Amino acid sequence: xQVPHSREAEQALIAACLVTQDALLAAVEQxxxxxxxxxxxxxxxxxAMVDLLxxxxxxxxxxxxxxxxxxxxxxRVGGVSALAEAADMLPTAANAEHYAAVVKAKWVRRQMIxxxxxxxxxxxxxxxxxxxxxxxxxxxxxxxxxxQARGKLSPFGRVLxxxxxxxxxxxxxxxxxxxxxxxxxxxSIMGGMRGGDLVVIAGRPSQGKTxxxxxxxxxxxxQGKHVAFFSLEMSREALAxxxxxxxxxxxxxxxxxxxxxxxxxxRAWPAISRMAALPIWIDDDGGVTTSEMRARARxxxxxxxxxxxxxxxxxxxxxxxxxxxxxxxxxxxxxQQLKIMARELDVPVILxxxxxxxxxxxxxxxxxxxxxxxxxxxxxxxxxxxxxxxxTGKPDSGPRELxxxxxxxxxxxxxxxxxQREYTRFLDVERLREEG
Length: 436
What we know:
Layout: H1 6-19, H2 21-29, H3 40-54, H4 61-70, H5 79-87, H6 96-124, H7 130-145, H8 156-169, H9 184-190, E1 198-203, H10 209-222, E2 227-231, H11 236-248, H12 252-256, H13 262-276, E3 280-283, H14 290-303, E4 308-312, H15 327-345, E5 349-354, H16 358-361, H17 376-381, E6 384-389, E7 398-407, E8 413-420, E9 425-428, H18 429-435
Parallel strand pairs: 1-5, 1-6, 2-3, 2-4, 4-5
Antiparallel strand pairs: 6-7, 7-8, 8-9
Helix pairs in contact: 1-2, 1-3, 1-6, 2-6, 3-4, 6-7, 10-11, 11-13, 14-15
């Protein structure tokens, strides 16, 4: 079938919808809206039909004419004669779904053209902030095309079969349906991480938040999954040292003072080889904003694939917030933007955050959700909150508790782990016993 020009497709769709309500339902299901019509008058007619459909009224030549007359738009669309002509234009509505697809596709192309002009305008404006302009350009292009990716109802039978097939394929690890974090107790409580989740890991300084994030990154990448790690505090070289030290059980201080013995180098080289092969991407731009993170993560997702994003840590993110808002509101906005990124990319996002000093002033030093620094929005937006608890409060090696204080779709609870500070790694208690 030859694809008609936009005006012809719009007229044919209107005619089909006047002939049968099924045609209108097909157009609405595909997401056709009145603003997608290049001819405003035809858009008015379509909107009148949608309004009648929403009101549970019949949609035909008479009711649409009355609706447009009541809105004062009948003459704008050419009067009753124009509607009558449209109703007679198409004897069958068999191709209504095709015409709806053409109307929508033509509108998307017009949006893309407008977006291209806006990007050109941004590129030619040299007195603005380049980072903000680049982020706006990417958002503009994405907004112009995201209409094509909108979902629709799926046959439940297909959903059911696909889901149970995934469950069957994961039967060897029945407690974990999502992306494994690599610590058995934590995986058991959380059931792994799922796409779209914002997971907040919070603790006091020097209690192992970054080491925990790296342990998770190492575990996820070891499953053949792709990880993007935004490090706003540590350089990529420092992270590279930590990864290898954790893998090869080499004391980090020996690397820093360049005092590795030959036996330690013999352990280091195989670990370096294994870590170099992991699909982890590191960004240590200390001034990165959430918009830039989203743009860079999208690029990795398109070019390489992406399964997990880690942000270390929220307090150092440099979003340019409204000066009239409080720091807590700005932090909340950034957390919301990272949650949006998780939904957009359909990957879990791990966000590291700090606990305030109140936890150190309590006798038991057990953290709670209210100890999240500038917590208001973070607690609300997060799907899961994990609090790192160190009963001693000292940064030495020793037992830790990972407290799952919030989990939107699962239980809460605490997991005992062991933090080896010298190797900057977390271990399950069982594994620690195995290693002696």
